[in-house]
Each structure stands twice: as C-alpha cells, then as structure tokens.
Backbone:
C-alpha cells in the first residue's frame, strides 16, 4: 500500500495510460482522482475491469541488519546466522541468484574498527561488553561485509558502503533477538490542550520505532496480469522498475517525518 501510494503520488491525473497500468499492476482500486481522463479529454473509469488481482506482490519486509549503539564508531550493524541463512535461501530459491555470500561459521566482526583500542580488543554495544572469540575478526564475515556493501548498499553513499565493511557484527541468535527487543527507539509523547496550554488529561503515550539505518529486505514478485490479453510478466516488471520511487513513506506519523524509507533494488528484485 505504501509503495502503491508513492506510485500514485507521481502520476499526472490526466495520464490515463499510466493509471491503467498502475491499476493492472497493483490491482483494482475505485478510489481514483476524479480528473483522470484519456488522451481525448474524456472522463475514464475502471469499473468494468475491477474483477482481477494485481500482478505485483511483495513479501514481508524483514530485518537484515539492525543498528545498535556502539561506544566506538557510533553504531554497529548487527545480524545473526539465522537471519543470513533465510536471506540467502530466499535469494537462491525465489530469485535464482547466482554466486552469493558464504554463511559465517561463527560469531565475530568484519574488522577491528569497533575495538575500544588496539590493545583492548573489546566491543561495547549499548551497556554490554563483548570480548574474546565472540568478536574476533573472521575472514568470512569480512567477505560478507564486502558483499553487502556491493549488493545491498550498492546504491547508497560511499560512506555507508565503507561503514558496513568496518562495522558489521554477527551475533548469536539470542543476543540478536535481545537487541531487537530492547534497542528500538521508544518515544514518550503528550498532547497539549489548546485552551490551557498544558498537557491534556489522559494524553500521555509512548511510541516505538525501528532506529534509523535499519536495513530491511523484501521480495518483489511479478506475474502476468490475471486477465486475457493483459500485461505480460516483463511488462509488469518494466512498469515497476521504470517508476519505482527512490524514497517513500511507510506507516503512521508522516507529519513528524517518521517512516521515510529508501528503496534500492538488486537485479530488478526489490
């Protein structure tokens, strides 16, 4: 829904062909701008074509890399073997990707950049300190960080590509789950009474957000239009890739700047 809204926001109300392809790609929606017209200026509707499913679908967005506060380097991107294994399996089996990264055999880090010092080879994430074999530099994690920089963050600024090569940590599943549960951003908010200028009774509440720089992945799945003579698979893929947004807003609180997501693609897969 959020991606569809981004497509609609870029559309001209008089570009009937674009709206028609959008409807066929994402599925029928009767809530269209009243000004949608064809090339002859005639008001157009899609009421006679509403009984078909969209030709584009998305998997759930799953967390791949989670940023955690670090005493050195501001933050580290953490992940775990189970998350990486699922990510690799989906790329291989659903996307038909070729040569991928090698799964790390154990926990560890990509480089020494997060060590508290060259002599004190410890890492502090939030209030927890890691040392020893748990955060040793592992070649397979170093290679994984390079693969992520070249494939997942390929369309990002060079700074982020460099940072992932230095600040990647593979944790145990239990530690990763704990950070996901306890290291999100929790904001306490209030509502002001316009008449008194003070906090309105009962209007104290909290909201929870994923921290900035969280990296998630989703699969875009294309199919021919479910209609005789409709768009073919490659036409659906082309429409999506030609018009996909670089950024879009997802979730609530758009008026306070929340939910801004950058969309990057790999081999025409979102």
Residues:
């Amino acid at each position: 829904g959020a991606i569809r809204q981004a497509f609609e926001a870029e559309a001209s109300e008089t570009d009937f062909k674009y709206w028609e392809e959008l409807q066929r790609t994402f599925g029928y929606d009767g809530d269209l701008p009243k000004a949608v017209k064809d090339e002859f200026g005639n008001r157009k509707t899609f009421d006679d074509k509403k009984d078909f499913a969209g030709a584009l679908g998305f998997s759930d967005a799953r967390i791949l890399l989670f940023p955690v506060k670090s005493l050195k380097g501001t933050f580290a991107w953490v992940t775990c073997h189970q998350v990486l294994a699922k990510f690799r399996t989906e790329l291989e089996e659903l996307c038909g990707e070729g040569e991928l990264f090698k799964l790390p055999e154990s926990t560890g880090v990509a480089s020494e950049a997060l060590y508290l010092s060259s002599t004190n080879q410890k890492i502090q994430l939030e209030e927890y300190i890691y040392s020893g074999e748990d955060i040793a530099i592992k070649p397979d994690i170093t290679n994984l960080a390079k693969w992520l920089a070249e494939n997942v963050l390929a369309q990002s600024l060079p700074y982020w590509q460099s940072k992932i090569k230095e600040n990647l940590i593979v944790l145990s599943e239990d530690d990763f789950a704990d950070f996901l549960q306890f290291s999100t951003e929790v904001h306490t908010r209030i509502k002001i009474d316009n008449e008194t200028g003070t906090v309105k009774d009962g209007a104290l509440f909290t909201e929870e957000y994923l921290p900035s720089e969280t990296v998630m992945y989703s699969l875009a799945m294309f199919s021919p239009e479910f209609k005789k003579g409709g768009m073919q698979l490659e036409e659906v893929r082309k429409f999506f890739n030609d018009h996909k947004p670089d950024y879009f807003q997802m979730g609530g609180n758009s008026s306070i700047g929340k939910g801004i997501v950058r969309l990057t693609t790999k081999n025409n897969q979102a």
Summary: The chain has seven helices and 13 strands. The two ends are 15 Å apart (CA to CA). The longest strand covers residues 199-209.
